[in-house]
Amino acid sequence: MMHRRCRTKSRRKSVLASLMCLACFPWFAGAVLAEDMPAPVEARIPFAPSPFAGSDGAVHLAYEVQVTNVYGDTGTLRPRSLEVIDEQDRVLLHLDEAGVDAAIRPVPDEGKPAGIAAGKRGTLFVWITLPTGVAPRTLRHRIAFTDEKDRVSRVDGVPVTVSERTALHLGAPLKGGRWLAHEGPGNAHSHHWGSLVAVNGTLTIPQRFAIDFVGIDKHGLAFKSVKDIHATTYADWFGYGAGVLAVGNGTVVAMRDGQGENKPLEGQPEPASLTLDGLFGNYVVIDLGGGNFAGYAHLKRGSVAVKVGEVVARGQLIGALGQSGNSAAPHLHFQVANAATFEGSEGVPYVFDKVDSFGPETEGQLFGMGERWKPATPRQGSGQLPLSDTVVAFPPQR
Predict the structure, then answer these.
(1) Could you tell me if 80 and 90 are in contact, meaning their C-beta atoms sit under 8 angstroms apart?
(2) How much is the pLDDT for 325?
(3) Residue 154, domain member (yes or no)
(4) Which of 60, 198, 207, 361 has the lowest tally of Cβ within 10 angstroms?
(5) What tens digit of pLDDT does each residue of 106-122 get?
(6) Domain with 258 in it
């Protein structure tokens, strides 16, 4: 028979050991801690932002914060606010609950707040317009959450150093005309910035700063007046066949021609692969140096005028705007990334040496629906990136 003293010591040791084990699990700690406890999430910034000037005349940062709700017992966490603070404790961005709902992917169901289920990840798309003269070196992030019992938890940290990478200065990508910078920078819900590509163990956003350039006339229309918009031909579209230009001196590292083109405004099948060949149709990729690769997609069949290994000069004609590849209407898809391939590359910001802006236009106005588009007073820009759904033109460059 065990001595009573020994039984007591053993019982105390067992209880203490149990408590020590239970303390290792956040679901237990969360049940006893007060509100405003540290959030049981992993938060990370996969690709450091770098500043660039937009066609609105302001300087911006664009990047993502990936948030993973790690533990199965936590339940759904609802992100309620986000603040971005620089090294001088200046709040550069504050998003309330509605702002977070608008910035997060996956997009929450209509009428419901954003939520990150246990074991799932949400991505916050961060767009910062910097105050004049402010150039932050580092950023940190405060994110507040509520759980299913309305308890509050927070992240305060997630530091990132702002990249010293300089936005590449480019020449015009197209010859003449006016263009709608459709689904461009600043639109986190676009099929460009909003598309995360998971291939072979990497998760990247190749199209972070991509633009679909759609040709328009002086009234902002994409094609001539027709009885049935689903019966348009290539000749009806103002941008079709426009000359596509090398935006800088470089070397062609990838190209394809000879692919068929789609009928305008016809539904597209799922791409065969998330690669240049699976998405871009007829295309050209130019190595501009410094780890920058300019990609041109959906070119007209038979128009590609360069070969792999060819050295091209800024302003040189390399093809014509068409509708090949994963494209529902004639346009030029243009992007700059840090690798020649689509998969595994990260989209990086760039600016055009000369670009005139004529104000915003909606997709409806592009197709002649709703209030007629009226151009704003032209704004001549230098060293700027066209922002999403802004009408632009590229003046002749010397």
Answers:
(1) no
(2) 95
(3) yes
(4) 198
(5) 988 887 889 999 999 99
(6) 169-393
Whether residue 2 lies inside any domain: the answer is: no
For residue 47, tell me if it sits in a domain. Answer: yes
The chain-wide mean pLDDT, for the chain, equals 90
pLDDT band at residue 266 using 50, 70 and 90 as cut-offs: confident
Does one domain contain both 222 and 330?
yes
Are 189 and 263 part of one and the same domain? yes
The CA distance from 195 to 210, in Å, is 11
**Placement of tokens 């053993």 in the chain:** 10
What CATH number is given to the structural domain containing 138?
A: 2.60.40
Rounded CA Rg of the chain: 26
Percentage with pLDDT > 90 across the chain: 82
Give the model's pLDDT for residue 398.
59
Buried b (16+ CB within 10 A) or exposed e, 177-208: bbbbbbbbbbbbebebbbebbeeeeeebbbbb
Rounded Cα gap, residues 252 and 284, in angstroms: 7
Same domain, 215 and 133: no
Give the total number of structural domains in the chain: 2
DSSP 229: G
The H or E element that residue 17 is part of is: helix 4-22
* Distance in angstroms (rounded) separating the CA atoms of residues 360 and 373: 9
For residue range 46-87, list pLDDT tens digits in order. 999 999 999 999 999 999 999 999 998 899 999 999 999 999
